[in-house]
Amino acid sequence: MKSDVEIAQAAEMKPVAQVAAELGLLEDDIELFGKYKAKVSLAAWERLKDRADGKVVLVSAINPTPAGEGKTTNTVGLGDALRRLGKKVVIALREPSLGPCFGVKGGAAGGGYAQVVPMEDINLHFTGDIHAVTTANNLLAAVIDNHIHHGNLLGIDPRRITWRRVMDLNERALRHIVLGLGGKANGIPREGGFDISVASELMAILCLASDLDDMKARISRIIVAYTYGNAPVTVADLNVAGAITLLFKDAIKPNLVQTLENTPAFVHGGPFANIAHGCNSVMATKFALKLADVVVTEAGFGADLGAEKFFDIKCRFSGLKPEAVVLVATIRALKSHGGVEKGNLGKENMPALEKGMANLVKHIENIGKFGLPAVVAINAFPTDTEQELAWVEAACGKLGVRVALSKVWEKGGEGGKALAQAVLAALDEPKEFRYLYDETLPIKEKIAAIAQEIYGADGVRYTPAAEKTIKELTALGYDKTPICMAKTQYSFSDDPAKIGRPQHFDITVRELRVSAGAGFLVAVTGDIMTMPGLPKKPAAEVMDIDNNGKISGLF
Predict the structure, then answer these.
(1) Is 94 a catalytic residue?
(2) What average pLDDT does range 385-392 have in this prediction?
């Protein structure tokens, strides 16, 4: 069996200029990054903006397990399958972060015969967008410390600097550090730390901005610290919004690539869904909608995180109205939610499957709360038995939900035709998309709506620090925004060990962070970290490159 990287290396790619032309983009609309990657000029929007929109299909999943689910793989395979059925399709994905790529999760370009290519480039630096986020973020951090060093005219309280530095790697040793050591010339000593780049508010802004002017306005509103008098300090106060925005002059343009079957794909923006809002850029999605009949996009991790944020944050800010949701699951993952150890997931176990099915059922119920039809995609594995597959199909039938077996990893678009047909049927259903909550409600009511309606929690607990911040943010007028929950991806609860569909639990909010530029509040729950660490055996240990530039071990 070939590895993902071997399959990608054998792909017959079209020049991206040809992909763009077939999509309806002009030569002047694209800026080439080599032969197989391009950025789409923002000027092209003026020519395209008045076209009718296609339909948005969101791909989400059950809570992830060690067994794997294949959400990106099915997003890509579904797009290829719809194209085989005669639809004009564009796929819209996020860019991979180097952190999980070298850590444990691997890249984010799909897998098997359902990948976006050039896979190696996409997973390794790509067009440099995440590096632009890193540099812009750290420029702002340097400006803050420089301002304090040179007299601190704004009266910034060094104990209340909220802007952290970032890097696009997993590095636990940098989570909490002391800055400015070594004497007066090296700045003012203070505590600080690093987040992973994709958790930066600037990444969220990149994914939500409509153009450079909107981006600059959002960057101006970022709160970086508080004064000794407890007044917020913004980027506008530091006079560097223009400088930070110019670092995004290329990064703001959507990236165009293709799948193994030459289906056009926009890959742009990369926020994680467990610590950020987890969706690709609004601009990439809107470009796709003007160029396609159907846009297949995804949101990170399970539907309790990525899909909820797609609906309540991305759609709210952009005006997008999705038409259907695909929930990806595997028989193996359902058994994992039923309590089966990873080494035994290949064995038939009907009691565990029935128990784990509760996780999928809850996600199906949640999609209905947004007024949308759900389609279940069972991502096929060789160890699946006929009895297991038939039982899941029957269980979905009792819920009135379409279900299809997906074999896109093995067969590409051909293996996704049944899923594509189910999705097309769902697109024809009547629906009335709605948000979960009114963004003008008090902070605690919005958090309670997510915790109780989506997670199934009994209630929400707040630490004293979180209670204090809620009062401060409300007094400052930052309470009337959507909520971005930072929570473990492995469970509906804030405890990763509570798999399946946990009952009788509370969510604990330990702190609130204001992302005034992005336009939402981040509620940090449980033990979630904004800077991941590497596992005992990082994926980097099996990666290599030979003298001819051939890469191995990348997946």
Answers:
(1) yes
(2) 96
